[in-house]
Design goal:
Strand content: under 5%
Number of helices: 17
Low-confidence stretches: 1-5
Radius of gyration: 21 Å
Number of domains: 1
Organism: Luteibacter yeojuensis
Largest sheet: none
Protein name: O-antigen ligase family protein
Mean pLDDT: 88
Distance between the termini: 21 Å
Helix content: over 70%
Order of helices and strands: HHHHHHHHHHHHHHHHH
Main location: membrane
Pfam families: Wzy_C
GO molecular function: ligase activity
Structural class: mainly alpha
Number of strands: 0
Length: about 425
């Protein structure tokens, strides 16, 4: 086994895995190197280690839909005769299916949990720097400019939720729990500074799920409910004191929804409604094959030229809903694949999040909160069309599922971990 012959490699693999989420969010050209190393190590493990392959079979509810999504979109691109460059981001699923094999190794779990939490803290600190030093009203991170504010907010919230779950672990040392809690707070406040309504609304039920699952496992309902109330209260207070911008953005939702029409589609909410109307037109016209991967923008602009769609949405290439994106571009079969992708992961992680063994329950809770965030944010935003959020989802869900699969295959004493 790798652990017996090369124990030092497990430290390297653990450090590389811990650093991966942060590399997704930073514009560093060399960030492909850790991914390449992990890909080769994962491929080697899949070929040589039967325990790793058994872990994949245990994680079939997560692995299978991801592999299906890769095959589905490859077929879609080929069938529609679309330039293969449109398949670039989606093709990364295959890489993460292999990289996930590294989670079946005997990892240094403390390195992973600290690394993920520190990533949330670092990204939150970047938000603070952009807001209070650079004077940027709506922070957006370093990777995608102003257009990336929504996905960056979701990205930080996912890592912050994982940090919250670690901070609630009574068996960890006080110092480590404080570190996780501090990183979670910095990350959450940084996400608030992005002023991204969809991710912030999705965070509340995802946060409640994490707290309630931990309360159910520990039996500490009073502490859990108190934490839930404090968390929601703190979010409301923070939003109301952020110079009024956040409340103003939420207040604009009702006004724009009530005044939207095909002739008046100006404003973030009205434009979304117009894009959703356009998406439904495309689904009605192409219910089985869809219009092709990444082709919504071309479809919408063609309808604008015909006078059927308001020109305010001409600049958009995606309908601001992941569910509509898959239904428009892949037809109803594409939507079914997305539902299976989220549903399979929710069932797998939800089933194991209440396991009495922390070595199973904690990665399951992290996976569950990740899927919840993406599934909820996907209602009003696209969560997979850019490399940063796409990579985080498949890296975490596939990796954590394989980790759980390997742990379930390994006999453990009752007091372990």
């Amino acid at each position: 086994m790798l652990e017996k012959t090369n124990p030092w490699r497990m430290w390297i693999v653990s450090l590389l895995l811990a650093a991966m989420p942060l590399t997704f969010a930073l514009p560093i050209k060399a960030k492909s190197i850790p991914a390449a190393v992990l890909f080769l190590a994962g491929l080697w493990a899949l070929l040589r280690d039967p325990d790793t392959r058994r872990a994949y079979r245990r994680a079939a509810w997560v692995i299978g839909p991801a592999a299906l999504a890769f095959a589905f979109w490859l077929t879609n691109v080929l069938a529609h005769g679309i330039d293969m460059r449109a398949f670039d981001v989606t093709s990364h699923i295959l890489a993460f299916l292999v990289i996930a094999a590294n989670f079946a190794a005997p990892l240094r779990t403390a390195v992973l949990r600290v690394g993920f939490s520190v990533s949330a803290g670092v990204l939150g600190a970047i938000c603070l720097e952009q807001r209070y030093i650079e004077g940027i009203d709506r922070v957006y991170g370093m990777n995608n400019g102003l257009w990336g504010a929504i996905e960056f907010g979701m990205f930080i919230l996912v890592l912050s939720l994982i940090a919250v779950a670690q901070a609630l672990r009574a068996e960890l040392s006080r110092g480590e729990r404080l570190l996780h809690g501090f990183c979670a707070i910095i990350g959450l406040y940084g996400a608030l500074l992005t002023q991204s309504r969809g991710p912030l609304l999705a965070f509340l039920p995802a946060f409640a799920i994490v707290v309630l699952f931990q309360s159910r496992r520990s039996g500490r309902w009073r502490e859990g409910l108190l934490l839930l109330a404090l968390g929601i209260g703190a979010a409301i207070v923070a939003a109301s004191t952020l110079h009024g911008e956040m409340l103003a953005r939420f207040a604009a939702v009702t006004e724009e929804m009530s005044t939207y029409s095909e002739q008046d589609a100006t404003g973030a909410v009205r434009e979304r409604l117009e894009m959703w109307r356009t998406a439904n037109m495309a689904i009605a016209e192409h219910p089985l094959a869809g219009v092709g991967l990444n082709q919504f923008g071309d479809y919408a602009r063609a309808r604008i030229a015909e006078g059927k769609v308001n020109a305010t949405v001409e600049r958009y290439d995606h309908p601001h809903s992941e569910y509509l994106e898959w239904a428009v571009t892949g037809g109803l079969p594409g939507l079914a694949v997305l539902v299976l992708l989220f549903g399979g992961a929710l069932l797998f992680f939800g089933r194991h999040a209440l396991n009495p063994d922390n070595a199973v329950a904690m990665p399951a809770t992290a996976g569950l909160s990740t899927v919840c965030m993406y599934a909820l944010c996907g209602l009003t935003d696209n969560v997979f069309y850019r490399a940063m959020p796409h990579s985080l989802y498949f890296f975490l869900t596939l990796g954590l599922a394989v980790y759980i699969g390997r742990t379930l295959n390994t006999p453990r004493p009752p007091a372990a971990h």
